Amino acid sequence: MSIRPPPHPNGPELRARVAANLAAFPRREIALAALRPAAVAIVISPVRRRPTFLLTRRALTLRRNAGNYALPGGNYEPDEDAIAAALRETSEELGVALPREAALGLLDDFETLGGHRVTPVVCWSDAELKLVPDPVEVHQAWRIPLAHLEHPTSPRRQPREGGGDPILQMRVRGSWINAPTAAWLFQFREVALHGRWTRLDGVGQPEWTRR
């Protein structure tokens, strides 16, 4: 199936639109003390004047979620907030150092089966980024055109083994990416790119993400 062109041109117009959509979005916060706070970064940057986002495949030797598609991110360190954690993890995993003002806004907090409260942070870079993945954490990394998020079959929902909410998946790079990463990309597409206030209620996650 064909992929529709990017929803907006790259450059100041896209940045302004994404920032405005995020500023207007009444994001939901989770305040459960039992959940470990974490953050992921959705980094928009140009490649040959086309807007892209960063995506990784986790190292194959990791104890948890080895080989899974993921956004750069991880747990907070002491005295960090979501923006600081997302930027630090992006630097550690991909060698991409962005200033705090690169953050355009936040999406909904999301509770994972692994017991985390994850905050997606949408970031912007005017410069084309050179990725230097840390082999301990990252098997491979890509700058994916935003157009991939517009695939006509995305999102799809697959039955969850054992019942419960269906698993949300997004089609990227010819593969189906599972929630929670797919859920964050879906909400980013809907809210940040299109200004559609979309929640992630009823999004199932594969049981193996609990490990």
Could you describe the 3D structure shown?
With about 210 residues, this protein is an alpha+beta fold. It has a single domain, classed as Nucleoside Triphosphate Pyrophosphohydrolase (Alpha-Beta Complex), CATH 3.90.79. The chain is about 20% helix and about 30% strand. The chain is built from 3 helices and 11 strands; from the N terminus they run H-E-E-E-E-H-E-E-E-E-E-E-E-H. The protein has helices at about 10-25, 80-95, 180-195; strands spanning about 35-45, 50-60, 70, 75, 105, 110, 115-125, 140-145, 155-160, 165-170, 175-180. Strands 1, 2, 3, 4, 5, 6, 7 and 8 form an 8-stranded mixed beta sheet that branches. Strands 9-10-11 form a 3-stranded antiparallel beta sheet, covered by helices on one side. The longest helix has 13 residues, at about 10-25. It is globular and about 45 Å long. Residues about 1-5 have low confidence and may be disordered.
